[in-house]
């Protein structure tokens, strides 16, 4: 809980319990580079995880599409919503059952690779993360996931 004191913000979102050194990857997939003030903490001690990263985003609340993306990198992350300097809401990332237009299909012959069709994947397994393409049934495992 010390981290929140050090990195207190008035309004915004704190993403906690990111696997250590993955914070920059999360910022990258969310496209947060131009979203105002970001504070990134890498390598905090965590009882649960050993080491963890924390991202603080001022004046921004995440949409479902954005937390779905986070789930691909940091499935055990916690989202803390801060309003007026207080913790308003704390929730775990939910692993979505389906991913829309977030993950690339690795099958070059898949209709989503050839045509102008949004990708759609089903979650087959959460740990380890395994996804299946709706169109060609290609399985994509956690190590090979490419985010669009
Ligand atoms: Zn496919």
Instruction: Show unreliable segments.
Output: 1-6
Fraction of residues in helices?
10-25%
Net shape: elongated
- What is the CATH topology classification name of the largest domain? Alpha-Beta Plaits
Q: C-alpha Rg, in Å?
A: 16 Å
The largest pleated sheet is described as: 5 strands, antiparallel
CATH superfamily of the largest domain: Aspartate carbamoyltransferase regulatory subunit, N-terminal domain
Terminal Cα separation, in Å?
34 Å
Order of SSEs, N→C?
HEHEEHEEEHEEE
Number of helices: 4
Number of strands: 9
User: How many domains comprise the coordinates?
Assistant: 2
Strand pairing plus helix content: what structural class? alpha+beta
The CATH class of the largest domain is Alpha Beta
Report the bound ligands by name, code or SMILES.
Answer: zinc ion
CATH architecture of the largest domain: 2-Layer Sandwich
- Average residue pLDDT: 90
Q: Looking across the biggest beta sheet, what order are the strands in?
A: 2-3-1-4-5
Query: Strand content of the residues, in percent?
Result: 35-45%
